[in-house]
Amino acid sequence: MLSILIPTYNYNVFPLVLELQNQCNESRIEYEIIVLDDGSKTIFKENEQINALENCQYLINEVNRGRASNINTLAELSKFDYILILEADAFPSKKNYIQLYVDAIKHKPQAVFGGVIYSENKPQQNALLRWFYGKSRESKTLKQRIQNPNDIVFSWNLLLKKNIFLKNPFDSSIKTYGFEDLVFLKKLKQNKVFIEQIENTLVHQNEEESSFFIEKSKAAVLNLIQLYQKNILEPVDSSLLNTFETVKKLNLTNAVAKIFKYFENSLLKNLLSEKPSLFLFDLYRLGYFCQQIQLKTQQK
User: Fold this and answer.
1) Reported pTM
2) Can you give the pLDDT at residue 177?
3) How far apart are the first and last CA of the chain?
4) Tell me, what's the pLDDT at 150?
5) Which residues of the chain are modeled with pLDDT < 70?
């Protein structure tokens, strides 16, 4: 009936698997839980216990292949008609989390998204940026999600018919971090896969330090530039691309890059503070985008 797929990297996913297994057993369904570690540098011994659990597997890639390829492999390994893609660092907010998806499957949907929330408890100052970003940009009410069902969605906490996923897999050529989910979701939208929205949230337990989140965001910007230059993503697909397109039309790319270089440290000071501004975070990413475009132009 249900294959639960969990890509992971440098994370102890055992508590999540144990909770999911208990809920599946309570729902009395046929299921499997497959965890695929993408060549983690840090090995958690707890994860090895997953193989001792009934209907559960823990597999390890010898090398890091990227999230897109990892999820594709998980889907290919799965054996049931529906797959549920999760994140290792998220946890069900409800004890009937699995049952709610089981109930949804009865109506034979193409895809279902349950939503994402963040803890109300503030993390330490060095991890505030990611928390503020998640609560503001990622955590949306069911009413908000229903208004834009195929736009307010992630590629995790996502239930899909397996055959639909296999016809619309992730772009495995995207090896590094950033925007592989947006490319995947764009493909679903183009192929008119309707994503039903329900109230079945996962609590994202991401507690990345702000400095690490900024570096990941910069890596994602580099990915976005490549996807943009290959015409895989367009300005309409991303607010950052849309803003850059305006800057480009006004011939301000070099000017923004120079301003970014001058104010980068000041922006970082705010982003690493106890009151980080998401507006300034957007400006930081735009400035970095323009700087990298300028560098690529100079290298030609």
Assistant:
1) 0.93
2) 87
3) 53
4) 82
5) 300
